[in-house]
Each structure stands twice: as structure tokens, then as C-alpha cells.
Amino acid sequence: MRFSKDKLQEIITALNSIIETVYEFEDKYEPNLRNVHPNYAQSARNLVHYLALRSFNINILQQKLEDLGLPITLESQDNILLSIISLRAIVYSLLDYRFTEEQEIAMDNQRVRELKEQNSIALFGSINEKRRTAILVTQPTEAATDENFVKILLKQGMDCARINCAHDEEIIWKQIIDRIRNNEKDCKIMMDLGGPKIRTGKMKPGPKVIHIKPKKNSLGQVVEPAKIWLAPYGVKPPKDVDFDVAIPVNKKWLRKTKKGSYIIFRDSRNKKCTIHIESKEDKGRWAFCKDSAFVTSETVLNVFLEKKSRKEIHTLQELLPLDEVIFLFEGDSLRLDKKAVLGEPAVYDDEGNLLEMAHISCTLPEVFDHVKSEDPIYFNDGKIEGIVREIHSDHLVIEITGAKKKGGKLKADKGINLPNSALGLRGLTNKDKEDLKFVAKHADAVNFSFVNCKEDVEELLDELKKLKAELGIILKIETKEAYRNLPSILLKAMENFPIGVMIARGDLAIETGWKNFAIIQEEILQMCNAAHVPNIWATQVLENLAKKGIPTRAEITDVAMAQRADCVMLNKGPYIVKAVRMLDKVLRKMQRIQKGNVTILPKLEFSENI
Predict the structure, then answer these.
(1) CA-derived radius of gyration, the chain
(2) 61-70, 103-112, 203-212 — which is least confidently predicted?
(3) DSSP state of 225
(4) What is the pTM of this model?
(5) What span, in angstroms and rounded, lies between the C-alpha atoms of 445 and 528?
(6) Quick one: which of 480, 381, 482, 467 has its CA closest to 432?
(7) What is the strand order of the sheet 226-231 is part of?
């Protein structure tokens, strides 16, 4: 095969231009490179080389290489300079040029592998020898008291544990950590700082009646029983688990129930109903009921143990008021209050005319100063979409533009996203600084929520210095601003060792737009690879399996793609053990054909008739 000399010369010119820019970028970022931790000296330089490469439209060069049948080595991000000078050497040889490449100026690929392994072990520990990708599991409150729960998670494949400081309190966090350490000292503990998250405020207490309502089809047949949380007064259900109702019961009475117990009662209409105990979690019980029922403070609950006639009777002496829920439909209006006014659903007259629109407050009223008319707004992880139509001194009026057909549920403490609004939220909150004292003392790494710029990282580094803490840092990339500033964020964070990046796909997808998210996720993975920084694939991984016990096909595909990351994070759910087991199996199988962003080609195992 003969190569066109002119086309080869064009490639040489392009490669020389890239190499020249690489050195220019080194000079430009030299102040940053001088300050990075010694362990990141070569990695930070490669990140700068990657930024130089991506300042060109590489697609054109790739197409020329492909047309000539030459290896497109520029697709690898982890050793940019070696890839470029190696490719140039190949092209020079085809032109019969005598040229001595200075390959000693670049890392060899063996060194790159060593660096990436070193950085991964420093952050995640030595993970399961049969798997390359670490598994990070968010710990529920149950982990504080149930030692067997932690043992099972570790046995099924958990490599690292995550505790979210936005939930529970220090006593619970310490109990969870102690349980883990007692079972596996090498299991890394990572703790999330809550950050300046915008959430909905408190709702007005609702009626003292609980309506148990199983899901039915159009024929009135039960297709899914109602999921019930039974617990003593004040014991809240796990926040990340979907359920239909919570029933407060006597603590001593509840202790006598177990899996297989069933509760018989007559509701307010004297209808005989049955609740089945399904599982235990912390001080509560998960149960299900196929009957539609209304439970009041007069309801008498009789608990029976399976295959035994013994029964315990309990009367609900008083029901705590239930929080109201706002159901929002497309076209509805919602008032978002600046002051901490208790939220309420809309009020209608007997003819269905609106008397007062639904309203709820916002936990960070200072954002009102930065919101503009026609700005998009999202509630509850994007499940409810809206547009800001009116701006007043004490409230916003929002038109709902997207929600479920049967209505989107909006409750207290649900996330609010304003992706197009420059909200000016910066750095650590006062609670973050207090929580950081505990994290620095008890955890291996801090998950830095809502980092937006290098100044945020600098503030965290200063706080760690004050605490004299040697702590890993995981940068949670969950805003449009953080994505745009990722190179400078990484270079600043590399002054600490070790660091990692969490792709917080929930908030990030809302902030950047669904249509943009796929490419943004890919760009973050590539940049982490260039910096030799471990990355975590997070949010809604096997969520349906963890919460309902059955995975969707899309979830399994998502997990297969997640193998390209260094770590995969699972959230809480009643079936979390099952989810860890499934994740472990899929990751092991996928690593046979995929290693990071490189496809591996083992011998096919299909029929010989193919």
C-alpha cells in the first residue's frame, strides 16, 4: 500500500502544531503544576497535555489517520505526549525521514498503569481481587444497629462505605463506622458534606387519618400492594426508599413482630383488613397490605405470629399528623415562598374553581435575588418541571410544565434546581465546617458536594489544614459551573493526595440538560482518565432493584457502562444487598470485554456455526 506524501505531510504538520501547543500549555500552567502533590506531578502534566490536545478539532486529524489506515492512538487520554510522538515517529518512517524521537521526555505506559493503580488504592483501598471496579455503598440508619447487615454487604462485595452528613447525626455516623471497622478495618469510609443544597421547606401537618391505598388496575383489581413503614413514634423511614404510608406504633408491641407476622384490624369503616410484615430495618418494619383501609387513632391492631395462635393487641392511642403532599399537574401554578411559610396544597371551591394556589417555601431564600423571569426550575430530582412566570418581593409564581400524568408529588425537603440561574452559592456552609471536624477524625475521604470552582476547593483545603487532617477528597461534580471549571478544580485539588471525582448524575443531568448529559458524562470520564484521577459513577445505579427488588433492563445496561469507571456507587434501599450482589456479578463479567474506555477482544464464546 502506498501512502500519499502530501497527506502524510499534512499529518506531520498537524502533529507538530499539537506538540508545540503542548509545551505552550505547560508554560501557561506551570504555577499550577509547581503546587501539586508530588504523587500527581506527572499526572497533572498529562492533564495539561490533554487540555492542549483538546484545544484542537482532533476529529479532522482522526479522519485523515483513519483514511490512511493508521492507528488512531490519540483516542487514549492517559499518556498524551507519548501517543503524539509515537504517532509522529510512525508517519516519519513512512516518509523515510531520519528523525530521532525524544521519547524519554514522555512517561512510558507502564508508569501510567502504576500511577493509576496507586491513586485508586489510596482512595478505595485494595478491592476485591476478582474485580477491577470498586463498589461504594451508601449506608442506611440500619447499619448503626444491625451488625449482620454490614457483614452481609461486605461479603457480597462492598469495598467502600458512604455516609451522608445530610442525614442522621454524629452518634449514628459513629455507630455505623464502628460496625464497619469491627468487621473490615480496610473498608474505606467516605462521608458527604451536605453543601448549599436548595430544598423545599416544611409542609403544614395534614389530617390524623392514614389511608392505605394499594395500586389497582382499571378493573379495580390490586396489581401492587401498598408498602407500609411501621415504626415507633419519631422513628422516620429511610429517606431514599419509596413507600406509600407510615404508621406509628408502640415500640414494645412492635418488637414482638418479625418477618412472617401478620396484623389483623378493622378500619374506620369496620372493614376487616390484613397487614403482612415483610422485613426489619433498624427500629422499624417494612410491611404490605392488599386492602384499601383508613387507619385512625381508634384502630386496634392484632398481631399474629405465623403458624401460631398467639396474638398481641395494640390500640393506636394517637396518630401524629401526617405531612401534607402537593399534587402538581401540567399547567398548575405553584407559589414558592421566600419566608418559612408552611406549605399547603391548592384550595378549590365546590365548583372546582381555584381559591388559593399551592405553595411551599425554599430553604435558601437568598437565591431569590438571582432568579429571572422565564428561568426553568425543577423539583424533586427533576420529576417536576416548571418555569418562573412572576417574581415578587416575597415569592415566585411558577407554572408547572412537566409532571406525571397522575400528578407529581411535592413534599418537604425535596431538591430544587435552577440550572440557568447564577445563584452565587459558594463554598462550605457552617454545618459543613462542623461536620468536617467529625469527618476528618473518623473517615478516610470527604465527598465535597456542590463544588463549583477552584476557590471552593481552596476553602476546603484551608479547613483541612486548620484541622491538621490528612484526608482524601472526592469532588462531586453536580452543576454546570463545576463541569465548566473542572480542569482548574482538578489542578487545585491535586495539591492534596488522594483525590477522586464523583459524577453525581442526578443533579448534573438536571443542571446541564438531559440532551447534553450523555456527552458531558463522557467528557468528565475522559478528563479524569487524563489526570489519572479515580472516578465514581453515581446516582440511580440499580435503583429499581435496590428499592423494589427487580432491576429494569435499562439499569443492567447502565451498570455495564459503569464498568468504565473506577468505582460504582449504590444508594440505599430495602433490597440493597441484592443490588450489591448483582452489581458485583455484572462488573466481573463486563471486565472481560472492557477495561476503562478500551475494548478487550477475547475469543468469542458463541456457537461454532456463526
Answers:
(1) 28
(2) 103-112
(3) P
(4) 0.80
(5) 18
(6) 467
(7) 245-248, 226-231, 284-289, 272-281, 262-266, 300-304, 311-315
